[in-house]
Protein backbone atom coordinates (compact mmCIF):
# COMPACT_ATOMS: atom_id res chain seq x y z
CA UNK A 1 0.00 0.00 0.00
CA UNK A 2 1.17 3.50 -0.82
CA UNK A 3 1.09 5.81 2.20
CA UNK A 4 1.02 9.57 1.77
CA UNK A 5 1.36 11.82 4.81
CA UNK A 6 -0.10 14.92 3.25
CA UNK A 7 -1.18 15.98 -0.22
CA UNK A 8 2.34 17.19 -1.04
CA UNK A 9 3.50 13.55 -1.08
CA UNK A 10 0.90 12.45 -3.65
CA UNK A 11 2.48 12.14 -7.12
CA UNK A 12 1.09 14.53 -9.73
CA UNK A 13 0.09 11.59 -11.94
CA UNK A 14 -1.75 9.72 -9.16
CA UNK A 15 -5.09 8.14 -10.03
CA UNK A 16 -7.70 8.30 -11.26
CA UNK A 17 -8.99 6.99 -7.95
CA UNK A 18 -11.97 5.63 -6.06
CA UNK A 19 -11.93 7.32 -2.67
CA UNK A 20 -13.57 6.93 0.72
CA UNK A 21 -13.07 9.27 3.66
CA UNK A 22 -13.28 8.70 7.40
CA UNK A 23 -11.60 8.25 10.77
CA UNK A 24 -11.61 4.45 10.39
CA UNK A 25 -10.91 3.96 14.10
CA UNK A 26 -10.49 0.24 14.68
CA UNK A 27 -11.43 -0.72 11.13
CA UNK A 28 -14.61 -2.48 12.30
CA UNK A 29 -17.10 -4.45 10.19
CA UNK A 30 -18.87 -1.29 9.06
CA UNK A 31 -15.58 0.12 7.80
CA UNK A 32 -14.74 -3.18 6.13
CA UNK A 33 -18.04 -3.15 4.25
CA UNK A 34 -17.14 0.28 2.89
CA UNK A 35 -13.67 -0.90 1.91
CA UNK A 36 -15.10 -3.99 0.23
CA UNK A 37 -17.33 -1.81 -1.94
CA UNK A 38 -14.43 0.56 -2.59
CA UNK A 39 -12.20 -2.28 -3.78
CA UNK A 40 -14.97 -3.71 -5.95
CA UNK A 41 -15.62 -0.39 -7.70
CA UNK A 42 -11.91 0.34 -8.09
CA UNK A 43 -11.31 -3.06 -9.65
CA UNK A 44 -14.29 -2.83 -12.02
CA UNK A 45 -13.34 0.67 -13.21
CA UNK A 46 -9.53 0.35 -13.14
CA UNK A 47 -9.24 3.00 -10.42
CA UNK A 48 -6.79 3.27 -7.51
CA UNK A 49 -8.59 2.31 -4.27
CA UNK A 50 -7.78 5.13 -1.87
CA UNK A 51 -8.62 5.97 1.74
CA UNK A 52 -8.45 9.48 3.16
CA UNK A 53 -8.10 9.41 6.93
CA UNK A 54 -6.70 11.51 9.77
CA UNK A 55 -3.86 11.14 12.24
CA UNK A 56 -6.18 11.93 15.15
CA UNK A 57 -9.84 12.36 15.93
CA UNK A 58 -10.93 15.88 14.89
CA UNK A 59 -12.21 16.46 18.43
CA UNK A 60 -8.63 16.07 19.72
CA UNK A 61 -8.01 19.49 18.18
CA UNK A 62 -11.43 21.11 18.24
CA UNK A 63 -12.81 19.94 21.61
CA UNK A 64 -10.22 17.82 23.49
CA UNK A 65 -12.51 17.45 26.50
CA UNK A 66 -15.03 15.62 24.31
CA UNK A 67 -12.58 13.46 22.37
CA UNK A 68 -13.11 9.70 22.88
CA UNK A 69 -10.09 7.41 23.34
CA UNK A 70 -8.86 5.83 20.13
CA UNK A 71 -9.40 2.11 19.54
CA UNK A 72 -6.10 1.90 17.65
CA UNK A 73 -3.05 4.06 17.06
CA UNK A 74 -2.44 5.72 13.71
CA UNK A 75 0.24 3.12 13.01
CA UNK A 76 -2.17 0.26 13.77
CA UNK A 77 -4.86 1.84 11.59
CA UNK A 78 -2.42 2.17 8.70
CA UNK A 79 -1.39 -1.47 9.05
CA UNK A 80 -5.02 -2.63 9.04
CA UNK A 81 -5.84 -0.59 5.95
CA UNK A 82 -2.90 -2.22 4.16
CA UNK A 83 -4.06 -5.68 5.30
CA UNK A 84 -7.54 -4.90 3.94
CA UNK A 85 -6.07 -4.53 0.46
CA UNK A 86 -6.36 -0.77 -0.03
CA UNK A 87 -3.96 0.48 -2.71
CA UNK A 88 -3.26 3.89 -1.18
CA UNK A 89 -3.94 5.87 2.00
CA UNK A 90 -3.69 9.62 2.40
CA UNK A 91 -3.15 10.17 6.14
CA UNK A 92 -3.83 13.85 6.80
CA UNK A 93 -2.60 15.69 9.86
CA UNK A 94 -5.73 17.12 11.42
CA UNK A 95 -4.41 20.58 12.25
CA UNK A 96 -5.94 24.02 12.42
CA UNK A 97 -5.34 24.67 8.73
CA UNK A 98 -7.18 21.53 7.68
CA UNK A 99 -10.03 22.19 10.09
CA UNK A 100 -10.60 25.61 8.50
CA UNK A 101 -10.88 24.41 4.90
CA UNK A 102 -14.33 25.09 3.51
CA UNK A 103 -16.25 22.17 2.04
CA UNK A 104 -15.40 23.29 -1.52
CA UNK A 105 -11.73 23.82 -0.64
CA UNK A 106 -11.59 20.34 0.89
CA UNK A 107 -13.04 18.78 -2.25
CA UNK A 108 -10.91 20.77 -4.65
CA UNK A 109 -7.56 20.45 -2.87
CA UNK A 110 -7.81 16.83 -1.71
CA UNK A 111 -10.27 14.91 -3.87
CA UNK A 112 -9.76 16.71 -7.16
CA UNK A 113 -6.27 18.25 -7.31
CA UNK A 114 -4.39 15.62 -5.26
CA UNK A 115 -6.26 12.34 -5.79
CA UNK A 116 -8.00 12.93 -9.13
CA UNK A 117 -11.09 11.19 -7.77
CA UNK A 118 -13.45 9.54 -10.22
CA UNK A 119 -15.72 8.06 -7.53
CA UNK A 120 -16.21 8.99 -3.86
CA UNK A 121 -17.89 6.61 -1.39
CA UNK A 122 -19.46 8.05 1.79
CA UNK A 123 -22.14 7.26 4.35
CA UNK A 124 -25.45 9.07 4.46
CA UNK A 125 -24.41 11.15 7.47
CA UNK A 126 -21.01 12.14 6.05
CA UNK A 127 -19.97 15.71 6.88
CA UNK A 128 -16.88 17.57 5.75
CA UNK A 129 -15.28 21.00 5.63
CA UNK A 130 -15.02 23.70 8.28
CA UNK A 131 -17.67 23.32 10.96
CA UNK A 132 -18.93 20.13 9.31
CA UNK A 133 -21.03 22.27 6.97
CA UNK A 134 -20.43 20.04 3.95
CA UNK A 135 -23.23 17.50 3.40
CA UNK A 136 -23.77 14.60 1.04
CA UNK A 137 -26.08 16.66 -1.26
CA UNK A 138 -23.37 19.34 -1.45
CA UNK A 139 -20.76 16.69 -2.19
CA UNK A 140 -22.94 15.43 -5.05
CA UNK A 141 -23.23 18.96 -6.43
CA UNK A 142 -19.47 19.39 -6.26
CA UNK A 143 -19.02 15.99 -7.86
CA UNK A 144 -21.14 17.09 -10.81
CA UNK A 145 -19.02 20.22 -11.08
CA UNK A 146 -15.63 18.53 -10.78
CA UNK A 147 -16.42 15.28 -12.56
CA UNK A 148 -16.66 12.58 -9.89
CA UNK A 149 -19.52 10.28 -8.89
CA UNK A 150 -20.76 10.06 -5.30
CA UNK A 151 -21.80 6.60 -4.07
CA UNK A 152 -23.77 6.25 -0.83
CA UNK A 153 -22.75 3.32 1.39
CA UNK A 154 -25.38 2.00 3.79
CA UNK A 155 -24.57 1.36 7.45
CA UNK A 156 -23.93 -2.14 8.76
CA UNK A 157 -26.30 -2.88 11.66
CA UNK A 158 -26.52 -5.51 14.40
CA UNK A 159 -29.03 -6.07 17.21
CA UNK A 160 -31.93 -4.33 15.52
CA UNK A 161 -31.24 -0.87 14.22
CA UNK A 162 -28.03 -0.11 16.08
CA UNK A 163 -25.27 0.37 13.55
CA UNK A 164 -21.79 -1.01 14.03
CA UNK A 165 -19.63 1.84 15.27
CA UNK A 166 -16.39 2.66 17.05
CA UNK A 167 -18.51 4.10 19.87
CA UNK A 168 -20.25 0.76 20.46
CA UNK A 169 -16.96 -1.14 20.40
CA UNK A 170 -15.44 1.40 22.78
CA UNK A 171 -18.33 0.80 25.20
CA UNK A 172 -17.74 -2.96 25.18
CA UNK A 173 -13.98 -2.74 25.71
CA UNK A 174 -14.20 -0.11 28.44
CA UNK A 175 -16.61 -2.35 30.42
CA UNK A 176 -14.57 -5.52 29.94
CA UNK A 177 -16.98 -7.20 27.51
CA UNK A 178 -14.14 -8.14 25.18
CA UNK A 179 -15.71 -11.44 24.08
CA UNK A 180 -18.51 -9.46 22.35
CA UNK A 181 -16.14 -7.29 20.33
CA UNK A 182 -15.17 -9.67 17.48
CA UNK A 183 -18.73 -9.75 16.11
CA UNK A 184 -18.46 -5.99 15.54
CA UNK A 185 -14.76 -5.51 14.94
CA UNK A 186 -14.08 -8.63 12.92
CA UNK A 187 -11.10 -9.31 15.21
CA UNK A 188 -10.30 -9.53 18.91
CA UNK A 189 -9.58 -6.23 20.66
CA UNK A 190 -5.84 -5.80 21.05
CA UNK A 191 -3.12 -3.56 22.42
CA UNK A 192 0.63 -3.47 21.94
CA UNK A 193 3.64 -1.99 23.69
CA UNK A 194 7.22 -2.65 24.75
CA UNK A 195 8.01 -5.01 27.63
CA UNK A 196 9.76 -3.20 30.49
CA UNK A 197 11.30 -4.10 33.84
CA UNK A 198 8.72 -4.63 36.57
CA UNK A 199 8.76 -5.25 40.32
CA UNK A 200 9.03 -9.04 39.76
CA UNK A 201 6.30 -9.76 42.31
CA UNK A 202 4.76 -12.26 39.89
CA UNK A 203 7.99 -14.25 39.79
CA UNK A 204 8.01 -14.66 43.57
CA UNK A 205 4.43 -15.95 43.40
CA UNK A 206 5.24 -18.45 40.66
CA UNK A 207 3.48 -16.45 37.94
CA UNK A 208 6.06 -14.07 36.42
CA UNK A 209 4.70 -11.54 33.99
CA UNK A 210 5.73 -9.38 31.06
CA UNK A 211 5.03 -5.78 32.09
CA UNK A 212 3.98 -3.42 29.31
CA UNK A 213 5.24 0.13 29.03
CA UNK A 214 2.52 2.73 29.75
CA UNK A 215 2.94 3.96 26.16
CA UNK A 216 0.33 1.50 24.86
CA UNK A 217 -1.23 1.44 21.41
CA UNK A 218 -4.89 0.52 21.41
CA UNK A 219 -7.70 0.86 23.94
CA UNK A 220 -7.00 -0.85 27.28
CA UNK A 221 -10.00 -2.84 28.59
CA UNK A 222 -11.55 -2.37 32.02
CA UNK A 223 -9.50 -3.39 35.05
CA UNK A 224 -9.51 -7.11 35.70
CA UNK A 225 -8.03 -10.46 34.73
CA UNK A 226 -8.45 -11.74 31.16
CA UNK A 227 -7.84 -14.81 29.06
CA UNK A 228 -5.75 -13.59 26.14
CA UNK A 229 -3.17 -14.38 23.51
CA UNK A 230 0.30 -12.87 23.75
CA UNK A 231 1.82 -12.21 20.33
CA UNK A 232 5.60 -12.04 20.00
CA UNK A 233 6.47 -11.56 16.37
CA UNK A 234 4.49 -14.21 14.51
CA UNK A 235 4.17 -16.51 17.54
CA UNK A 236 1.10 -16.64 19.78
CA UNK A 237 1.18 -17.78 23.39
CA UNK A 238 -1.79 -18.37 25.71
CA UNK A 239 -1.71 -15.82 28.49
CA UNK A 240 -3.31 -14.59 31.69
CA UNK A 241 -3.43 -10.79 31.60
CA UNK A 242 -3.95 -8.50 34.57
CA UNK A 243 -5.01 -4.87 34.15
CA UNK A 244 -5.15 -2.46 37.09
CA UNK A 245 -3.15 -1.38 40.10
CA UNK A 246 -2.98 -4.76 41.90
CA UNK A 247 -4.58 -3.58 45.17
CA UNK A 248 -2.96 -6.35 47.22
CA UNK A 249 0.34 -4.43 47.05
CA UNK A 250 1.04 -0.79 47.90
CA UNK A 251 2.37 1.73 45.39
CA UNK A 252 1.44 -0.08 42.17
CA UNK A 253 0.71 2.43 39.34
CA UNK A 254 -2.84 2.69 38.01
CA UNK A 255 -3.68 0.83 34.79
CA UNK A 256 -0.65 -1.43 34.76
CA UNK A 257 -0.84 -4.21 32.15
CA UNK A 258 0.92 -7.51 32.90
CA UNK A 259 0.84 -10.69 30.82
CA UNK A 260 1.73 -14.14 32.17
CA UNK A 261 2.64 -16.44 29.26
CA UNK A 262 1.39 -19.91 30.13
CA UNK A 263 3.90 -22.80 29.96
CA UNK A 264 6.63 -20.66 28.39
CA UNK A 265 10.13 -19.49 29.28
CA UNK A 266 10.61 -16.21 27.43
CA UNK A 267 13.01 -13.28 27.55
CA UNK A 268 10.90 -10.36 26.36
CA UNK A 269 12.60 -7.28 27.77
CA UNK A 270 12.74 -4.51 25.17
CA UNK A 271 10.54 -6.38 22.70
CA UNK A 272 7.28 -5.06 21.28
CA UNK A 273 4.44 -7.46 21.98
CA UNK A 274 0.70 -7.47 21.31
CA UNK A 275 -2.12 -8.80 23.47
CA UNK A 276 -5.41 -10.05 21.99
CA UNK A 277 -8.15 -10.20 24.61
CA UNK A 278 -10.47 -13.22 24.54
CA UNK A 279 -12.62 -13.18 27.69
CA UNK A 280 -13.01 -11.36 31.00
CA UNK A 281 -12.32 -13.71 33.94
CA UNK A 282 -12.74 -11.61 37.08
CA UNK A 283 -12.41 -8.11 38.48
CA UNK A 284 -9.53 -6.77 40.54
CA UNK A 285 -9.68 -7.78 44.21
CA UNK A 286 -7.58 -6.94 47.25
CA UNK A 287 -6.39 -10.17 48.91
CA UNK A 288 -5.32 -10.41 52.56
CA UNK A 289 -1.83 -11.59 51.67
CA UNK A 290 0.42 -12.80 48.85
CA UNK A 291 -0.41 -16.48 49.48
CA UNK A 292 -4.12 -15.84 48.98
CA UNK A 293 -3.32 -13.96 45.78
CA UNK A 294 -1.16 -16.83 44.53
CA UNK A 295 -3.98 -19.29 45.18
CA UNK A 296 -6.39 -17.15 43.19
CA UNK A 297 -3.85 -16.79 40.37
CA UNK A 298 -3.69 -20.57 40.17
CA UNK A 299 -7.48 -20.71 39.86
CA UNK A 300 -7.37 -17.94 37.23
CA UNK A 301 -4.82 -19.86 35.18
CA UNK A 302 -6.91 -23.04 35.32
CA UNK A 303 -9.94 -21.13 34.07
CA UNK A 304 -7.94 -19.39 31.34
CA UNK A 305 -6.51 -22.71 30.14
CA UNK A 306 -10.08 -23.93 29.81
CA UNK A 307 -11.18 -20.83 27.85
CA UNK A 308 -8.20 -20.98 25.48
CA UNK A 309 -8.23 -24.75 25.05
CA UNK A 310 -4.86 -25.29 26.70
CA UNK A 311 -4.18 -28.56 28.52
CA UNK A 312 -4.27 -28.37 32.35
CA UNK A 313 -0.95 -27.95 34.12
CA UNK A 314 0.48 -31.35 34.98
CA UNK A 315 0.74 -32.24 38.65
CA UNK A 316 3.88 -30.92 40.31
CA UNK A 317 4.88 -28.68 37.39
CA UNK A 318 5.81 -25.05 38.01
CA UNK A 319 5.59 -21.95 35.96
CA UNK A 320 8.96 -20.69 34.75
CA UNK A 321 8.26 -17.67 32.55
CA UNK A 322 10.70 -14.79 33.17
CA UNK A 323 9.46 -11.42 34.46
Describe the SSE topology:
Elements: E1 2-4, E2 17-21, H1 29-45, E3 48-54, H2 58-62, H3 74-83, E4 88-92, H4 96-99, H5 103-114, E5 117-123, H6 136-146, E6 149-153, H7 166-174, H8 182-185, E7 190-196, H9 201-204, E8 210-212, E9 224-232, E10 235-244, E11 256-261, E12 272-282, H10 290-308
Parallel strand pairs: 1-4, 2-3, 2-5, 3-4, 5-6
Antiparallel strand pairs: 7-8, 7-12, 8-11, 9-10, 9-12, 10-11
Helix pairs in contact: 5-6
At a glance:
With 323 residues, the chain is an alpha/beta fold. Helices cover 29% and strands 24% of the residues.
Structural features, described:
This protein is of the alpha/beta class and 323 residues long. It has 2 domains: 2-153, Rossmann fold, CATH 3.40.50.620; 189-308, Elongation Factor Tu (Ef-tu), domain 3 (Beta Barrel), CATH 2.40.30. The chain has 10 helices and 12 strands. The protein has helices at 29-45, 58-62, 74-83, 96-99, 103-114, 136-146, 166-174, 182-185, 201-204, 290-308, and strands at 2-4, 17-21, 48-54, 88-92, 117-123, 149-153, 190-196, 210-212, 224-232, 235-244, 256-261, 272-282. Strand 5, helix 6 (136-146) and strand 6 form a beta-alpha-beta unit. Helix 5 crosses helix 6 (136-146). 35% of the residues are buried. Residues 316-323 have low confidence and may be disordered.
Amino acid sequence: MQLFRGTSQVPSDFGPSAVTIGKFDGLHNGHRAVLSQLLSIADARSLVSTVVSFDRHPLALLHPELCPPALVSTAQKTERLAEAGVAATLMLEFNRELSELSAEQFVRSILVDALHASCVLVGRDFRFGAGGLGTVPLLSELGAEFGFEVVIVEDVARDGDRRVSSTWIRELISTGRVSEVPQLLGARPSIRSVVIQGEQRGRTLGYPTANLSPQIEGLIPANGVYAAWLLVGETRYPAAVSIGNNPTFEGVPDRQVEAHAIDQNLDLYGQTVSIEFVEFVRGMTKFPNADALATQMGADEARIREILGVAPRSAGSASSEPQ
